[in-house]
Amino acid sequence: MLHCRLVRSTAAHAEITAVRTGDAAAWPGAVAVVTGADLAARGDMAVLFGPVLLDQPVLAIDVVRYIGEPVAAVLAEDPAVADEAAALVEVDYAHLPAVFDAEEAFGSDTARLFPEPPERDPSFVDVTLRADHERNVCNTFTVVKGDVEAGFAAADLVFDDVFDSPAAGAVPLETHAVVADARGDRLTVWSSTQTPYITRRQLALLLGLPLNRVRVIVPALGGGFGAKAYASVEPIAAALSRVVGAPVRLHLTREEEFVTSTKHAMRVRIRTGVMRDGRIVAREATAYYNAGAYAVISPRKVMFGAYGLNGPYAIPHVRTEAHAVLTNTPPAGAYRGFAINQCAWAYEGQLDMIAERLGIDPVEIRRINLLRDGDTFCTGETLDHLRFHDLLDAAAERIGWDPDEPVHRDGDLVRAKGISCVIEGTITPSTSTATVRLGPDGSVDVLTSSVEMGQGIRPALAAGVARHLGIDPALVGVSYVDTDLTPYDQQTTASRSMYSMGGAMGRAADDALHKIRELAADLLEVDPADLEIVDGQVRVAGVEQQSLSLGEVVRRSQVGNVIGEGTLVTSGGLDPFTGQGVGSVHWHQSVGAAEIEVDTATGHVRVLRYTGGVFAGEVVDPVGAEHQCEGCLVFGVGNALMEELVFDQGQLVTGTLADYMVPTLEDMPRHHEFELMEDPEHGEVHGLGEPALPPIAPAISNALYRATGVRIRSLPISAEKVLRGLRERRESEQAAGQVDEVTSVGAQG
Amino acid sequence: MSELQELPDDPGAVKLPDADGRVPVRIDVNGRARTLRVRTTQTLLDALREQLRLQGARSGCGVGMCGACTVLLDGRAASGCLTLAAVCDGTDVRTVEGLEDPSGELSRVQEAFLRHRAFQCSYCTPGFVLALEALLAVDPSPDEAAIREAFSGHICRCGSYSRIMAAALEVAGATDRREQA
Ligand code: FES
Ligand code: FES
């Protein structure tokens, strides 16, 4: 097996004028040095990939579009030798105009990432593209409801604000890793992907192989959080393996991980019209997603932001638009919470400014506006099973919300509470398939292509299948992913697996039970309709003594095993010009409340307590659910207070875990709790990977606002920004002589 | 907190590299004497993973910030990514693989982590387990503050901190604020 070390671009946007590989190739132990031009010259593989647009080169060809882009690969048996040889590759660049900010890149006259429009991957059918490569736009999505101009005309007050979220890293503790073996006429990859079937399709397209000759095996991952969705390192290892005719391993360093997939930096311009009684009557918002240099999944992601900007409120007149804009920064991809984090950061922050201006309590203004059963969402869907009001009331009670509670002061330390509410969809349409195999000894195999990455999908599926079959979960084994053996699943993202794969699994279990019933009817010489299956036992209804276990049925009927299959396909989708249609098969509803303490001398913010509430439908694995929520809290606290990929002219300056801070135990609130609201009658399982996350940063920020009057509009809430805000407030108070808090803070917009 | 190991007092203890740029080191790993030839730049983490195929210690950052690579070096928690294998000659190294007793029984700490399901992806788990083992070796009943201190250089990105603390407090014999798993 050969180890790969990549030579990465040091230019943000440039033509490659020369790549000198001679010294590297001559380095003792180096087996091969490969460039993008080498791959292109072979003619036996495609050299561009991407899940929607085929825009990303395996190794850069002619042009580099971000600092950190792979330009050449060095292979050696000893990874240390590959490292040494890689340092000897020299690349010359002729710089091109570069752009780093999404709003600047949107229609930029100076910087254009793609002179020609990239081709699209023909098999990605559910995304309608409104790309405009001349304006660096890889997709746009618009949602229109009612008549937004009329709404603003009727409003008593209009608020106009801009909110920013920076690029961030998902930082799975294990970085991306892949081994690819393209010997013979097959390709086998062992990959850390969250999207085995999409990755298989992407690799088949790249190497020109039929799907069934590409095998993707996925062992347990050391975290994913979205960053490992869609092919990224796999095409490189696969192409190199074909070149050298040996298995190739590529395991990213942390520095490389940071430039491989990021959370979209996003700017949101948001205008909201309200009546004096607190009703929101109009919203117009535009989101600029910084997609980075390649589209990856941004073309699909704009949909989530476009309807996400509506928030969980009944607003009669809405026009929201989201643009995914290419810039000379590392590609942004999937990230826990989709783009809903960035949307909520904007609309929930603005809502507290509105509440203050109107003199309405933040909890009350949400009660007034939250969606209720029967309301029409901005997508035209009539919503039901809404529990926002219950979730909000319960969270307010848990945090001890009191509209008249004064801010607590103790010297420089100031304490206050904040609240926030969020709506989020799950991927729709979507498809999962599953197989359940009953053995003659009563044990059960579950074959699934849902990826285990620590979120606990395997124990959760085992618990679900065991319950379905009425047997002990210890009898159920859940597979890891191997596309040669485990059936199709669309992807392990978007908090969809428990609903989608769980649903497919339930159908597969039912199918197996149906077959068991037929077999048992033959064995017992009765009509299948006279049989009942209770607690894993098949018996003639009412006759307890004549019963057979599931295993006995398999054994005695000599069928070897009983195989049940299940498929769950959800349908829906939204029109990209109007946003009308079916946005999501169910809606994640989430509320958060934080109590914070800010040190006004240092600007340092600590989260003392956090409580969240999520509508979970039905909780399958309570410990797993608790883990998912606490995981969201790690991300929420990190996003709120510390995490930011800082770029200087496209060069990442927070590229190690010594510079990029993620929460440790000490950064976490000492007290936290999550309510998982269930609705057993409705009996629908909702995923819990993400819904708890988006309210966290706005709740913390709103608490800071109540504590100090300082409104932070750009994440993270660093001590520096807080101190600056406090100083500005003091100065404007002095200038005004007497403070009119409302005008000095709330109305500036 | 993981600590950097000091260089041996006697400079003669560091051997000079051979023609391949490698030095021989004898390390007692999980109770077994092993002789390795390592590059002078090679980390202990790399030697354990690549040469000895002990993959319990993991790389998360390579710069001493995440704790995933923690091993016990002469009984003290150390970052495998910051420790050069070449200076480990004559040391005693224990990895998570070496915690179970010869009959295969897991350590108290491991049992507690399992009982509390104190992990999600478990990539960070060996680091937390060894940090706690190192602490317990010098303080059999540490209080919460001491445990927090021992975990301060460890990241669990999945967010299993509460259950990790619950497991640790149980082993430490301290009262647990949370109900058990
Ligand atoms: S890999 Fe050693 S501390 Fe992170
Ligand atoms: S369990 Fe995944 S990093 Fe701790």
UniProtKB/TrEMBL annotation, chain B:
Pathway: Alkaloid degradation; nicotine degradation. The keyword Protease does not apply. Gene3D superfamilies: 3.10.20.30, [2Fe-2S]-binding domain (1.10.150.120). Keywords: 2Fe-2S, Iron, Iron-sulfur, Metal-binding, Oxidoreductase. GO terms for molecular function: 2 iron, 2 sulfur cluster binding; metal ion binding; oxidoreductase activity. InterPro entries: 2Fe-2S-bd, 2Fe-2S-bd_dom_sf, 2Fe-2S_ferredoxin-like_sf, 2Fe-2S_ferredoxin-type, 2Fe2S_fd_BS, Beta-grasp_dom_sf, Diverse_Oxidoreductases. It comes from the Bacteria. Residues 23-99 form the 2Fe-2S ferredoxin-type domain. This is (2Fe-2S)-binding protein.
